[in-house]
Specification:
The protein is built from six helices and four strands; from the N terminus they run H-H-E-H-E-E-H-H-H-E. It is an alpha/beta fold.
Length: 147
Amino acid sequence: MRSNDPQEFLSLDEKAIVEQAIAQAESCTSAEIKFVIARYCWSNISDKAARIFKKLGLHRTDQRNCVLILLVTANREFFIYGDCGIHERAGQAHWDDVRNRMAEKFQQDAFADGIAEAAGMIGQKLAEHFPRRHDDVNEITNEVDYQ
């Protein structure tokens, strides 16, 4: 049974898998991906994602092309939140595919694999719309964040 404590939810190996997957996904795009684990969500998860997005300054990327993946441990809920313009460019079908794949992996208790696969799918799609630039810098740390 996994802990509801965000900092204990993933093992060190799982955390490394997630962070490496994010770095790899970002290697082909100028977009940024951030994974956050929170313990509780007392409100609508999309509202919580929007608050965290702003709190972490994810809306301040140069091209406004950051995606937040939020996992709430107590509720076992997750949400994918993209900055302005990303949702329309990727299309609802893509986000549904990412969500469904994550849900499938999560049901198997393969949380790190689910996040890693989601990061890869997101990075691949965003590379079509936000290709990596020669002067690209990593604007958002790839480390798992805890809220």
